Amino acid sequence: MSITLDSVFYTYAPGTPYASAALKNISFTVEKGEFVGIMGKTGCGKSTLIQLIAGLLTPDSGAVLLDGKNINDKNYDRNELHRKVGVVFQHPECQLFETTVERDVAFSLKHFGWSKEKVQSAVERALTMMGFDYEKVREKSPLEFSGGEKRRIAIAGILAAEPEVLILDEPIAGLDPLGREAFLVLVKRLNEAGMTILMISHNADALAEYAERIVILKDGMLFRDGVTREVFSDMDELQKNGIGVSEARQCAALLAERGFDVAKDTICYEDLLKQMIAIGRGQQ
Ligand SMILES: Nc1ncnc2c1ncn2[C@@H]1O[C@H](COP(=O)(O)OP(=O)(O)OP(=O)(O)O)[C@@H](O)[C@H]1O
Ligand SMILES: [Mg+2]
């Protein structure tokens, strides 16, 4: 499933003194199977963007298309959108409300017309995928779990619907380093199995490592859209605009400043390590 934003504008509270033009003339397409990172300073419009893709907001002008179909057309089947696009909003752990983990994860499946057995196996699969022992957790209250675990339960609720596209708004913020890495590996695995991923994150290291493409918003406008390696190469311009780049990229820039031969498109630790070994060998 491809997602296209075509010249999208969106303003909150239009025509009032509180009017806020959140998105201005945004156009890009995400093809099936891509892993796209979305970055930008706080308030630049990232969450607004995904609410438009999820159909929760309607553009003032322009269009949001899924597989070429405008999701805001009268005749568009919104069920298709809900089945195929899973969205994990910021702080999903705050949205758990059912009495048991099983019911919570099954919630979004209610309207799919699936058999009881199919629902149960989807719930079991999603919880297992998120690292839980299904039999141990199914009858527990979601409230008994830690913040990180609640987040994984909430994400299981999205994955249970087996979406083709998974959109994540700051999914790793506040997770400890091990939890973060485990989560990113899982998302990468879903992507390798064919799921399209759009991940909003302030964590440039995570995106450098996992996203093939980066879209950056600035003041509601599209500032950059390209292959991660190329986008992060332009470190000075990004930093001037308040956008962080990965630590490996910063380290490569420091080494280059000191006269070492390190490529500009060094963006993750693996790249950096290889080049540092080569430098070390050259000095022997
Ligand atoms: N419900 C709302 N009513 C009015 N203005 C809003 C509303 N939600 C967001 N805005 C404004 O729209 C702009 C974009 O907000 P948005 O939440 O999309 O930014 P963001 O990039 O997700 O920020 P963050 O990184 O802090 O999550 C901001 O100026 C924000 O103040
Ligand atoms: Mg946001």
Brief rundown of the structure:
Helices cover about 40% and strands about 20% of the residues.
Characteristic terms for this protein:
single chain; 284 residues; alpha/beta; Rossmann fold; four-stranded antiparallel beta sheet; binds adenosine-5'-triphosphate; binds magnesium ion
Task: Provide a descriptive summary of the structure in words.
With 284 residues, the protein is α/β, with parallel strands linked by helices. The chain has helices spanning 46-53, 78-84, 101-106, 116-129, 134-137, 147-159, 177-192, 204-210, 228-233, 235-240, 247-257, 269-283; strands at residues 3-12, 20-30, 35-39, 61-66, 69-70, 85-88, 165-169, 196-200, 213-218, 221-227. Helices cover 40% and strands 21% of the residues. The longest helix is centred in the middle third of the chain and has 16 residues, at 177-192. The protein is built from twelve helices and ten strands. The strands form two sheets. The chain has a six-stranded mixed β-sheet, sandwiched between helices. The chain starts with a strand and ends with a helix. Strand 4 (61-66) and strand 5 form a beta hairpin. The chain has one domain: P-loop containing nucleotide triphosphate hydrolases (Rossmann fold, 3-Layer(aba) Sandwich). The protein binds adenosine-5'-triphosphate and magnesium ion (MG).
